[in-house]
Every structure is written in C-alpha cells, then in structure tokens.
Amino acid sequence: MGRLEVISSSSTSTIFMEEEFLNINVSHAITSLPAQDSRTKSMTSYAVANRGDEPIIVRVEISPNALDYAKDMQETVPPQSMRVFVPNRFLKWTRLSINTEASTSASIVDVYFQSQTTGSEQKI
Questions:
Q1: What are the b/e assignments for 55-75, b being 16+ CB within 10 Å?
Q2: What is the pLDDT of residues 1-48, one digit of tens each?
Q3: Residue 27 to residues 98, 102, 114: CA-CA distances in angstroms?
Q4: Model confidence, pTM
C-alpha cells in the first residue's frame, strides 16, 4: 500500500491523494477494502485491475458511520481487464467489496483509490 499527496500552490489548493491495494487474493468470500473518508473529497475513483483468470464482482459501498454499508453500484470485471468505479451517491465513508463469481475460483486484484479535493485542507 502506498499513499501520495500533492498540493498545488494556486490560490485554491487542489489536494490529490492516492492509495494502492496490490496483489489482493480474492475468492468467493467477500473481501472488503479499508474504508476511505469521503467527506472532504470533491472527486473519488477506484481503478480495479483483475489480474487473474476468473471474473470478479466489485461493489462500491457507502456508509454514514463506517459500520453500516449500502451498495452504491456493482459491476463484473472480466479476467485480465480493468474498470474504473466512481461512487454515484455521497456518504461520509466509501469502500470496495470484491469477490469472484464462481464459488470454486480465485483471482488476484490490484486496486488504486484516487481522490482530489479543491479548497483549503490540511495535509494528512
């Protein structure tokens, strides 16, 4: 996992943040990634690269409290391909949950979370 933040020097700051979740082993049991605090982000997206040979199901989930999650959107990502997910609705917390389509299969997934905030925000 890595994290990168860039702050522009213009009068309205743009803060870019990135977090990587690499080589995640995914099975039919749901794997949920750590929740991201979305409250100050003007834009967030997840790039999901399915490195394996089995289709995976990816769900964007949102939460008001980082405990109770609702499905915002869901899509199947074919083997050896990548899809970008942008939440449709807003709540304070956002996360991805991933599993394989078939109960006997497994896959490897790379996920890149990226966000940007316009305005004044302190660096984390």
A1: bbbbbbbbbeeeeebeebeee
A2: 566 655 555 556 788 899 999 999 999 999 999 999 998 888 999 999
A3: 8, 8, 25
A4: 0.82
